[in-house]
From TrEMBL:
This is DUF1493 family protein. InterPro entries: DUF1493. It comes from the Bacteria. Pfam families: DUF1493.
Length: 110
């Protein structure tokens, strides 16, 4: 099985997405409805299940804050953060395929 197929199958099982045509190399996780804590839970499971080194994964660069209720701590973080929500970088399926091939997260922030 090719790495793309492995990632597609993982997403299909994790999120219950039946239409494999939606899961192409350039598809963003946010295009599939992955945001905030759900996206974080997904990538953590992906990294752990496939034993991928994610020491270079900068969570705050790729995972947007949860929408809706803000705890006092998150409200303070949002007020004093210099990073805007639209600065969050997308995680594409090809990023996951690359991580699977290399057994390491490859930072695409350049």
């Amino acid at each position: 099985m090719e790495n793309l197929e492995i990632v597609q199958q993982f997403i299909q099982i994790f999120w219950g997405i039946k239409d494999k045509k939606r899961l192409q190399m350039d598809t963003n996780l946010s295009d599939l409805g992955f945001y905030g804590d759900d996206k974080l839970e997904f990538v953590q499971k992906f990294f752990n299940d496939f034993d991928i080194d994610f020491s270079d994964f900068e969570e705050d660069k790729f995972i947007e804050p949860e929408k809706g209720f803000l705890s006092p701590i998150n409200l303070i973080k949002r007020i004093f953060s210099s990073k805007k929500e639209d600065e969050v970088k997308e995680i594409k399926i090809k990023d996951l395929v690359l991580a699977l091939e290399n057994k390491k997260w490859i930072n695409n922030l350049k």
